[in-house]
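Here is one chain, start to finish.
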Amino acid sequence: MFSKKLLQSLSTVTLVNISILFFGFLREIVFSSKLGISNFSDNFFYYYLVVEDFNAIIYTGLMFGLVSFYTKEKLSNQDIKNYIFRNARYLALFLIVLFLLQFILISFFQNNSFNRLAFNSLLAIPFSIFNGLIMSFLVHNSKIALAIFSRAINYCGIILFFLFIDIRNDQNLIGLSILFGYSLQCLYLLIIIFFDKNKISEQNKIRTLILLKENYTWIIAPLLVPFCSNLIFRSIFIFQPDNLVSTINYASKIIMILSAFTFSVILVGFQESNIKKRSNKIHLINDDLKNNVRLLSIVLIPLSIFISIFSNEIMSLIFLRGSFTEADVLKSSHILSLLIFSTFSASLFGYLSRVYENIIGKRKYHLFFLVWLILSSTIIILFTGLDKSMIAYPVAQITSTSILSVLVFISLKKEFKKISYTEILLPITLNLILFIKTLINF
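Its structure:
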């Protein structure tokens, strides 16, 4: 049913993702212990997660786009490494400009903690872009585990920063903690690429403008979701009671348990389709689609049921310490019991949409994400206006991703006819029924 090579790749990447999950949870435990759920934690997560969401543009946009571009242009490893290090000079210049801009603005607004926080965070952007370039090279060479392990290094850096420096006494340090994490990640990736045997060549230069023109949809998609969508919902919830920004953040972190598996399916599935495209064996992707959809449904739906039922116990076990109170556990577990069901539909859409862009093309790819942004934002605004803000985000997530999964599948069906509608509609329907049943009991 599942190829041995696919399962081996999934196992390796999933194990690495578990290590990332471990450090990610350590980071969240440190956050919850020191901050709990409060107005301060809402402000903290508002700014911190804006930067993290921007980096989703790099890791789910730039990286996938570059890998697709390298394959299409049939570039050698030497050409790719040459492109990466040529751009390092421009990123270094960008970093210097940001340092100067930060110095000037902070000099004029010495008492404005927002400016300090915002521009300290911006210093991490050049490192993030450079990290994305190196990771794309590693993924293109099927060194997926080495590439994504760099995220664990990033989290470890932020944890160390928090352990040795108390950011509660100085909000300006929040941005510096992010910079420290991305700097460590960059150092790790430089060491990996330094030991690669391919030498840098000056032949076949890659033009950045052509690359961006060819792959702008990969960048636009994560810019719309999660960056713009999350910015909209946090900007709405920051003015709502119950500290929903922090509450949703902690609840969503439990979904990281499942993301170790789902990201593996998406990334390995994407690379498998990429390899088959390179070998002109696109017809073999029919079986990959069917198997990966089954794999997602077999694993995610039962786990979602389990986590929903035991949401209170799970939140207590992980976060109930320090400033995180019983009341915080209750609020976040209620959100988690609903939000967990969006994991399957979001993962299904993530996988199908990347296969669509890689195989069929970019005609509708970014439009799917635009629809996601409009649908989710509309639902959040509607439910918040009806004084149902506690359930607005979970309802928006599962509704929009379920609809989009069906739309992408319909588009893929024209190319891959062997997979039936039942393969998609049955698990989506089951997942929605379980969500509605939980919502009724909310």
